[in-house]
Amino acid sequence: MKTYAGKTALVTGASSGIGKALAESLAARGANLILVARSADRLEHLATALRGKGVEATVIAADLAQPGAAARLHAEVERHGLCVDLLVNNAGFGKWGRFEGESLATYGEMIALNIQAVLELCHLFMPGMAARGDCGVLNISSAVAFVPLPWTAVYAASKAFVLSFSEALSYEFKGKGVQVTVLCPGNTESNFAAVAYAAARPRAPDDSAAMVADVGLDALLAGRASIISGNNKKVAWLPRILSRERVVALVGETWRKRLLVLGVPV
Ligand SMILES: NC(=O)c1ccc[n+]([C@@H]2O[C@H](COP(=O)([O-])OP(=O)(O)OC[C@H]3O[C@@H](n4cnc5c(N)ncnc54)[C@H](OP(=O)(O)O)[C@@H]3O)[C@@H](O)[C@H]2O)c1
Q: Is 90 exceeded by the pLDDT of residue 102?
């Protein structure tokens, strides 16, 4: 994929944060948008702003953590007569704190959204993309995908799935007209922290959502399988230079202290 101009991009989690920034950057680069999230009002607001800039924007409100949601979204896209050239799997959430402090229902929802929906949307959209060629998939993982992260264990494991899955697909689809790229952001300006622990003290983001979005979109055009945005590359190196035991102790202790400062009980 060499350009986004004239392409149709479906962005999940487009109502806020990194997803909204991805949609805005894609629109600025000449793509038409299919905007997906649960908050129809926020998506409509964004769609109106994008249409004002000459872009076609379609809103499909969906809760992607529900069983069958990905198939319903795929059918809805076809009902609109649209063809997806770029699939952006961005919707996701995490939780900070003790493992036993969250319910199994919350962890189930996290796995359904962060893993199952990504898997299903790739499976539904990628065959058509490969048949047409000149298409792409941008999956949003995290810098924490490279390490196990105590007090955020399920989220970090879910993002490890996205990283591994995406890199494998990137190789499998090489030369088949579908560029698969996985973007691993660090602490980025968005609603993520408020969702991860509602009562946490404000945490200053290291990176802007707009910068992170552009890093991911540029990496896909450059044919990269993976990219880490911002100053977060050290974490990917840790498992190459330390034992797994040392890595988990190091990141776990650093993260535990940071969570205590944020007011999250650990
Ligand atoms: N911000 C960071 O520091 C950071 C770091 C690494 C990775 N990430 C990853 O970046 C991605 C975007 O997160 P963000 O930081 O931009 O957080 P955010 O501002 O909270 O955005 C999350 C997006 O996902 C949507 N969403 C949540 N649950 C959904 C569901 N069940 N069905 C459909 N859409 C749903 C939300 O919209 P609705 O509420 O309207 O549904 C929202 O648009 C996530 O995959 C996250 O794991 C973020």
A: yes
User: Residue 186 phi/psi, 5° resolution?
Assistant: -100, -145
Q: Which of 63, 46, 60 is nearest to 209 (CA)?
A: 46
The string of pLDDT tens digits covering residues 159-191 is: 999 999 999 999 999 999 999 999 999 999 999
Closest residue CA from atom 46 of ligand 1: 92
Ligand 1 center to residue 46 CA distance, Å?
16
pLDDT greater at residue 202 or residue 100:
100
Helices in the chain by DSSP H: which ranges? 17-28, 40-51, 69-79, 104-111, 117-132, 153-172, 192-196, 209-221, 234-241, 244-262
In Å, what is the CA distance from 71 to each residue of 31, 155, 168, 232? 24, 24, 23, 35
d(CA 109, CA 217): 27
Please check the confidence at residue 202 and state whether its pLDDT lies above 90: no
Query: Which residues have C-beta atoms less than 6 Å from ligand 1?
Result: 12-19, 37-39, 42, 62-65, 90-94, 113, 140, 142, 185, 187-188, 190-192, 195
Q: Which residues contact 47 (CB under 8 A, 6 or more apart)?
A: 33, 35, 57, 58, 59
- Domains identified in the chain and CATH numbers: 8-262 (3.40.50.720)
Residue 97 carries which DSSP code? S
How remote is the CA of residue 193 from the centroid of ligand 1, in Å?
Answer: 10
